[in-house]
């Protein structure tokens, strides 16, 4: 009889403990869901519910192979945008509870709406599916995509006749390109490689494998030290131009209320990265030190005049002095805009 009483009491304690554990996890889940949309900023501290803190001996957050007891949003552990984490709670009753969550981190300052004025229009070959776009002097260097039509070419701004061009193999889908000294670097979309050309003749010099961390090749630019590549995610990857297979670092890109992914064609100018957002008439101005979007350009009106379907979207940024040149895939025009 005594054994039955003890067993029954133990069962009650176990049930109470299980209910308490479930309550802790449900409360934490509700909190995380409410904060996922609101987001955090660097320096914020996670204010976990009392139901969690009062019943926890310890709380840690793990990120893959990293773990911290600090509940502050620290850039040593978090990036801008969405962060997949696991909360590890050791209860005062000795149980270890785990819960996966997403912690969104946004920039503290709202993005500035940058205005501009169209001051010139130039012809562009509408057959060219623009993936990379630069200007040096009065010469446009352009990488065009599509299997069977991919190429690197250069032409004088105001004309559409190539001064030089090199076709890619039919299996290659060319993507972003950038000028580095006397060479032009070019990515491919899914071939996991890139090409290096002589800038004057566009003769192929060599090819390279880009790092596996890049899911695909999208945009490419150069900041004077590193290549910067996009792969359609929220991340920008800094690569060593002497060996582009080497990843130097990466940053995540976000504004004050959202992470930005689908980052496409890129341009570096005066200390900032400019990025097209695929299938949106928007160009972002990004701080390369931390991925913060400090400004946005709205090119809706220009895009309306040139976009007829889902493919012929805004995708081309270059700087002619302090003015920006913009174009798109299969667009018949290049626009020169003065930034206000």
TrEMBL record:
SUPFAM superfamilies: YVTN repeat-like/Quinoprotein amine dehydrogenase
Family annotation (InterPro entries): QCT, Quino_amine_DH_bsu, WD40/YVTN_repeat-like_dom_sf
GO molecular function: glutaminyl-peptide cyclotransferase activity
Gene3D superfamilies documented for this protein: YVTN repeat-like/Quinoprotein amine dehydrogenase (2.130.10.10)
Annotated Pfam families: Glu_cyclase_2 (PF05096)
UniProt key word Transferase: yes
Keyword set, alphabetical order: Transferase
PANTHER family (UniProt xref): GLUTAMINYL-PEPTIDE CYCLOTRANSFERASE
Name of the molecule in the record: Glutamine cyclotransferase
Organism: Chryseobacterium phosphatilyticum
């Amino acid at each position: 009889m005594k054994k039955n009483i003890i067993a029954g009491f133990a069962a009650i304690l176990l049930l109470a403990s299980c209910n308490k554990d479930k309550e802790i996890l449900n409360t934490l889940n509700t909190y995380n869901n409410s904060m996922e949309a609101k987001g955090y900023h660097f320096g914020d501290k996670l204010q976990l519910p009392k139901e969690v803190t009062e019943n926890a001996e310890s709380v840690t957050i793990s990120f893959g192979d990293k773990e911290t007891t600090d509940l502050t949003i620290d850039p040593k552990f978090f990036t801008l945008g969405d962060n997949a984490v696991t909360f590890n709670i050791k209860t005062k009753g000795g149980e270890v509870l785990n819960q996966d969550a997403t912690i969104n981190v946004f920039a503290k300052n709202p993005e500035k709406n940058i205005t501009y004025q169209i001051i010139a229009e130039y012809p562009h070959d509408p057959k060219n599916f623009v993936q990379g776009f630069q200007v040096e002097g009065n010469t446009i260097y352009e990488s065009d995509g599509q299997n069977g039509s991919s190429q690197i070419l250069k032409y004088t701004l105001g004309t559409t006749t190539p001064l030089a061009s090199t076709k890619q193999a039919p299996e290659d889908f060319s993507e972003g390109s950038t000028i580095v000294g006397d060479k032009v670097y070019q990515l491919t979309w899914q071939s996991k490689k890139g090409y290096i050309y002589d800038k004057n003749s566009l003769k192929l010099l060599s090819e390279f494998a880009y790092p596996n961390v890049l899911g695909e090749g999208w945009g490419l630019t150069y900041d004077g030290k590193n290549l910067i590549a996009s792969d359609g995610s929220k991340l920008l990857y800094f690569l060593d131009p002497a060996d582009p297979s080497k990843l130097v670092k990466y940053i995540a890109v976000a504004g004050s209320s959202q992470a930005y992914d689908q980052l496409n064609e890129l341009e570096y100018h005066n200390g900032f990265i400019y990025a097209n957002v695929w299938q949106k008439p928007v160009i972002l101005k990004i701080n390369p030190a931390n991925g913060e979007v400090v400004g946005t350009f709205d090119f809706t009106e220009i895009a309306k005049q040139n976009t007829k379907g889902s493919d012929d979207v805004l995708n081309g940024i270059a700087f002619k002095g302090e003015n920006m040149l913009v174009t798109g895939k299969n667009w018949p025009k290049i626009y020169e805009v003065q930034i206000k």
